[in-house]
Specification:
Keywords: Membrane, Transmembrane, Transmembrane helix. InterPro entries: TB2_DP1_HVA22. There is one protein chain. This protein is an all-alpha fold. It has a domain of about 120 residues. The protein contains six helices and no strands. Helix 2 packs antiparallel against helix 3 and helix 5 runs antiparallel to helix 6. The longest helix is centred in the middle third of the chain and has 81 residues.
Length: about 200
């Protein structure tokens, strides 16, 4: 299994990739066409291999046959990739090219529409989450500001008018938590202690 994997990696992918690079660099059209045919056949082989590995892995010498097939594709004597491309792939793709192009255009349009749809949906979810977080945060902020303003009012009331109610009554009548009235109560006793 590992031998098969590394053999296909080295001889099926890296070796042809290097010679494809040399063909592109030298701008030799004949070599370029040869390696393009190889890559088309190798892509079809890799796609088919995904399924055959599941169903035919029990077959005797299955992995050895895959190594031999890749060697046959690469061999300059057998010209396997060129043979398969010219006999089977090119005629099939030529006859079905219009249908394949139409399917690809439809798939591209559908994927774009789906991407836009899910993008809008994701933005709506994010906006809703941001609004909810802001409203919760705003509630906490307004509560905090209200407590500060009530303290300021009670301090001003306690200092400026001696006839007004003490700050303790302002605090007990509001719906604040327990630590806040005790804090203002200690401020009220502190201000009455000053008088």
């Amino acid at each position: 299994l590992f031998l098969s994997f590394f053999s296909r990696l080295i001889f099926g992918t890296l070796y042809p990739a290097y010679y494809s690079y040399k063909a592109v660099k030298s701008k030799d059209i004949k070599e370029y066409v040869k390696w393009m045919m190889y890559w088309i056949i190798f892509a079809l082989f890799t796609t088919a291999e995904t399924f055959t590995d599941i169903f035919l892995c029990w077959f005797p010498f299955y992995y050895e046959l895959k190594i031999a097939f890749v060697a046959w594709l690469l061999s300059p004597y057998t010209k396997g990739s060129s043979l398969l491309y010219r006999k089977f792939v090119h005629p099939t793709l030529s006859s079905k090219e219009k249908e394949i192009d139409d399917c690809l255009v439809q798939a591209k349009d559908r994927s774009y529409d789906a991407l836009v749809h899910f993008g809008k949906r994701g933005l709506n979810v994010a906006a809703t989450a941001a609004v909810m977080a802001a409203s919760k945060g705003q509630g906490a902020l307004s509560e905090r500001l209200r407590s500060f303003s009530m303290q300021d009012l009670s301090t001003i009331r306690g200092d400026s008018s001696s006839t007004g109610p003490p700050s303790v009554t302002v605090r007990t009548s509001s719906k604040q938590s327990q630590p806040k009235p005790s804090r203002s109560a200690s401020e009220g006793t502190g201000s009455s202690g000053k008088r």
